[in-house]
Amino acid sequence: MDTLDNELSVQAETRQMQKLQMYQKLVLFTLYKFKWSILGVFVLVIAAGIILRAVQFKNSSRKFEGAVTLFYTPRASEEVKPLSINHVLGVFARQQIFHQLVEELHLTEKQQKVLKQSIEVKLLRDHHDMFVITGVGESDEYVKQLLNTFVAIGIRNYEEYRTAELRNFLETREQRLREVQIYQKTQIEHLHALHRKYGIIHPKEEMGTVKKMQGEQSATLAELNVKLSDARYRFSVAQRNYKAIPAPVIKFHVTLRQYIQELRRASREYEKAKLMFAERNPRFVEAKSAYEAVNKEFENFKKRNNITDFAESMLQGIEGVISRYHEAEVALQQLELSMKSLQAEIALVKEKEKKLQHMIPEHEQVEQLQKTANKNVSLLVEELTRVRSSIAHVPHDIIINERVVSTKAFSMFPVKILAVIFIGGIFFSALYALVVVVYDLVYGKISGIEEVSFHKDFFDTVGVIPHENANFTHEQRKVINNEMFYRFILRIKNTQTLFSCSLDGSFLSSVMFDEQFTLAKRNTILVRLILASEVEKICGNMQKIGHFYYSDNGNTGFNYTRKGNDAEAVDHELEYLRGFSSGDGKGYGYGYGFAFFPVRSLFGMDPDEITLLREVVEQLKKDYQLVRISREKPFDASCLLVRQLHDICDATLLYIGKLKTPRAVLRRVLKLHDEEHRIYAILTGVTDVEKVIEGDYIR
């Protein structure tokens, strides 16, 4: 299956290539046929171009040409970039320059009309900093004056334009500088207000000092906390020992110590008196009385001072306890005062830190804004300096390379004009040739035996039928007809069914070759399709057998085997046709005849009609060497009937008339060409007698 598909694809491509080659040859043939008219159009266009150019040059003001080359070297600036070269060219092309040029040169009305076309400003090729001003005019002096004046006005306009642009930019930047300076002063005032508000001049340095102080205070606070803990411990121990002794004892410990000493002395005197003297001894009594007096006084002292719990042991080391208590108390109080002082200092430093934390961001922002303002002021000052320098350099931006010293005259027929005229001639002649070819291919009609040679890949040219007015003798016509017929017989010797299609508007397809087939002793039948509505008109006197009406070479009636005076009945048309085509002489007329097949339409048969015709043709092929099918009227290639009959028959015979058959009709028929169905052609209306006689176009 793949091999078959590939083979069919190759055949289709080959057929398309053949069609393309055929049309290419046909185009060449058409061009050759109209060669003199195409050449005439070319010559006419060339002549018209030369005449038009001569008239145009005579009336033209473009007879002399001059040019000035200008250098464009502006000073580069980041602030105001120099104008691009195209912008400069636009400045030189302003309408204002032409108005000033008219005023200064006092031009005539004619010169004013062509002024814009007389001057051209363009960039010099391959140079981005050079441009050329070209001027044309009727005389050498006028061109020089025109260019010199135009260059001067153009440079003046550029300087005015560029200077105005730079000055506008300068004013804008000066205004911006004033605004930035005002903004700079505002930031300075804001900075001073911050200093006054917080009372700090250098917040970052102050913050460093605060951090350092906070570090020292943290160390001091830690050390003081250790000392304070130790002092509190020692004070608690001294306080506990101090509070272990009643307060009156501590208060009167000196007096109590004196009383104790006095009691001890009186007690020793009393003890000594008891040992040495009798109770009635005055010294004993005196010692006893002194002791009792001291003891009573001591008791009264304790009672008077509310000294209840007293022991002599309490007086041992009491001075040390009191001293240590007071020392510990004093030390603790000093440390607590130091702690309070340190905490106050820490609070002050913390407060200052908070103040600095609020001040520093605002201070930094103001400082940054102030720095930006200072920087912008510096940049603007530098920028203004550069802009002023650019303004001073504007007169030197455009430098005239040379003045117009001489001019050159235009040629009436320069190479470009000649090329345009020549190309125009080629274009219009080609356009005419294209129109002629397209029109001839689409709407034209076949031109004769010369053109048929281009279709030889699609059909065989088997013969010609000369025009009735052609210069042929009777013998020549007979020779041509006989030669054409026998050539045709050789071509279709393997063909059993032939579809005759008349494309020249004649009825040749219905009557051609009848006599020749009889002379050639070849059994053939012509089946003609007619409208069912015209049966009575065409076949009124003919005999109908089955679906056909028969005529034996123009004689009508029953023409099969006769017995007596009555015709033998025939049951079927094929039985009749077998007898008609037999060689025993029983048929009326030998070897050919007509069979009329009525259909509903001559433009396309219905399926039942196609089926019936195909079946009958298959039966006829058993008894006839050739079955020819045609119809009553000439064919239109757009008819469906052409496609249907082409499929039924083995080959198609075309009658193509010179200047009678449209090419579009022929192309539609040729689309039916394939490998299984051959197409033959007979040319009608041929007038080239010598070519026909020589047989150059008959294959």
What does this structure look like?
The protein has 699 residues and is of the alpha/beta class. The chain is built from 23 helices and 16 strands. The protein has helices at residues 2-33, 35-59, 85-92, 95-105, 109-113, 115-118, 140-198, 203-243, 247-251, 253-276, 282-304, 318-393, 415-442, 449-452, 474-491, 508-511, 514-519, 535-539, 573-581, 607-623, 640-648, 663-670, 689-694; strands at 64-72, 119-123, 130-137, 398-400, 408-409, 460-466, 497-502, 524-531, 543-545, 548-551, 562-563, 566-567, 594-599, 626-631, 651-657, 678-686. The strands form three sheets. The chain has a nine-stranded mixed sheet with strand order 6-16-15-7-14-8-13-10-9. A hairpin with a 2-residue loop joins strand 11 and strand 12. Helix 7 (140-198) runs antiparallel to helix 12, helix 10 runs antiparallel to helix 11 (282-304) and helix 19 runs parallel beside helix 20 (607-623). The longest helix has 76 residues, at 318-393. It is elongated. Mean pLDDT is 77; it is low at 553-572 and 578-591.
Structure keywords:
9-stranded mixed beta sheet; alpha/beta; 5-stranded antiparallel beta sheet; elongated; 699 residues
Can I get a quick summary?
This protein has helices spanning 2-33, 35-59, 85-92, 95-105, 109-113, 115-118, 140-198, 203-243, 247-251, 253-276, 282-304, 318-393, 415-442, 449-452, 474-491, 508-511, 514-519, 535-539, 573-581, 607-623, 640-648, 663-670, 689-694, and strands at residues 64-72, 119-123, 130-137, 398-400, 408-409, 460-466, 497-502, 524-531, 543-545, 548-551, 562-563, 566-567, 594-599, 626-631, 651-657, 678-686. The chain has 699 residues and is of the alpha/beta class. The longest helix has 76 residues, at 318-393.
